[in-house]
Design a protein that fits this description.
single chain; about 170 residues; mainly beta; Porin; 2 helices
Length: about 170
């Protein structure tokens, strides 16, 4: 009985704020999923879906890079779309939303920077772009599978219009 009295006399001095802090610190349900991977470089295919005169419908390659900013859900991404004699660079900053330990969905915003005068899968002039996508890290490996779309607004010199391309590929984490 004396043992219980000693315990209650010690517990009696704990404030409500201390109880709340202790319960938060030891509550595993408050932990949020963070992706188990970070930065990567990769390569894959790119497909331009539309434009006003058919020039943007191109099949080509993509070189992708992601730099994951630590402790905040943002990344800096760049994709180089290479198709025939045209190419474009698309740098974006993305908000990354972890779906589970291997998968991130994201939405990036940035610019399309065409190289040269020919139409690319994402237009033929500098334009604003939105880039939704998904990154999936294969379990127990350094391999990342990525897929995304690029929506380039007012992307063509003659007639404006929105250019849309889809990309997919495989990367290596670093």
């Amino acid at each position: 009985m004396q043992c219980l009295q000693n315990l209650f006399s010690k517990v009696k001095g704990i404030t409500l704020a201390q109880i709340v802090l202790i319960s938060i610190a030891f509550n595993p349900q408050l932990a949020s999923a963070q992706a188990a991977y970070g930065s990567y470089v990769g390569a894959g295919v790119s497909l331009g879906l539309n434009d006003s005169n058919g020039e943007g419908r191109q099949l080509g390659g993509v070189i992708a890079a992601r730099y994951k900013l630590q402790e905040i859900p943002f990344s800096v991404r760049t994709q180089a779309l290479i198709s025939g004699s045209s190419s474009a660079i698309v740098p974006t900053v993305s908000y990354d939303y972890p779906i589970n330990w291997q998968t991130d969905a994201y939405l990036g915003a940035g610019l399309v920077l065409p190289v040269g005068d020919r139409a690319t899968p994402v237009g033929d002039k500098t334009s604003f772009a939105l880039q939704p996508g998904v990154d999936y890290s294969l379990p127990n490996s350094n391999t990342v599978v990525f897929g995304n779309a690029i929506f380039a607004f007012d992307a063509y010199r003659n007639g404006g219009g929105t250019a849309i391309s889809v990309q997919g590929g495989v990367g290596v984490r670093f």
